[in-house]
Amino acid sequence: MHFPNVSAPGFALQPLCLTDVEATTDQALAMIKANAPPGTKGFIGESALTGGGGHDGVTNAFVSSMWYADWLGAAAKRGVHAVMRETLVGGLYGIVNRSSYAPAPDAFTMALHNALMGPGVLAVNVSVVVPHEPGGDSRVGQMLRAYAHQSKGGSQSAVTLLMINIGSDTAFAVGPPPGAAAPGQRMEWHLTAADGDISAKRIMLNGKLLELATPTSTALPPMPGRPAPTADPILVAPASVVFVALSQ
């Protein structure tokens, strides 16, 4: 079944397809639990938006980061111990461009996920109210994907949210989170495609292009978050990936 207003070439970012991938992961983890020694951990490798070496304008573009961020969140939520990315350089789904050696959008998404999302996985439930407009579709709420972890390096009560809006036209206002009425600030990282084109091979953080300091730089640039009042709703733009560190 085709869902309207989904930012994806083809089917991969359709909510139904994402659910099927989760079900397959659950089956694999169940097989490990039933057949492997106690304490065996599940690892997943060679996961990407498409196979066969990737596809230009998809696996090396921002749309891949939408899928990749959701996959990292879904895998952790289901108990996968580690997700191994294929590959560093090569094909069209490498973390680094095989010709220019510039980081692909997924490199920045992976770096932020690694820096912000700790190993403690938490339950999260985001309720979306969709206005009943003529010709509208209530399933649009399924386009907002949400995950929560304990913040990496923070206190046990510190939480970081990951939200992916796979809708190409629909923005969401989320929150404020429970208990956020007290004055304070949170930090936000909003990843979007350059020029609003999900097939773009460049990525923006909080409205600014992410790129190396020089073509020969060997480190990613700083990726600071931007502060926002804790009690304000979190605005999740269409076709975006958002990390939010809550101050608790």
List the SSEs and their pairings:
Layout: H1 15-35, E1 43-44, H2 62-77, E2 82-83, H3 105-116, E3 117-122, E4 144-151, E5 159-165, E6 172-174, E7 185-193, E8 203-205, E9 208-209, E10 226-229, E11 234-236, E12 240-246
Parallel strand pairs: 1-2
Antiparallel strand pairs: 3-4, 4-5, 5-12, 6-11, 7-8, 7-10, 7-12, 8-9
Helix pairs in contact: 2-3
What is the number of strand segments?
12
Count of alpha/pi helices: 3
Kindly give the count of domains: 1
By CATH, the architecture is named Alpha-Beta Barrel
User: What portion of the residues fall into strands of 2 or more residues?
Assistant: 15-25%
- As a percent range, the share of helical residues equals 10-25%
Biggest sheet details: 8 strands, antiparallel
Order of helices and strands: HEHEHEEEEEEEEEE
Overall shape: it is: globular
Distance between the termini: 41 Å
CATH third-tier fold name: TIM Barrel
Class based on secondary structure composition and strand pairing: alpha+beta
Overall average pLDDT: 84
- Please mark out the parts with pLDDT under 50 across 5 or more consecutive residues, or reply none: 1-9
CATH class: Alpha Beta
Radius of gyration from CA coordinates: 18 Å
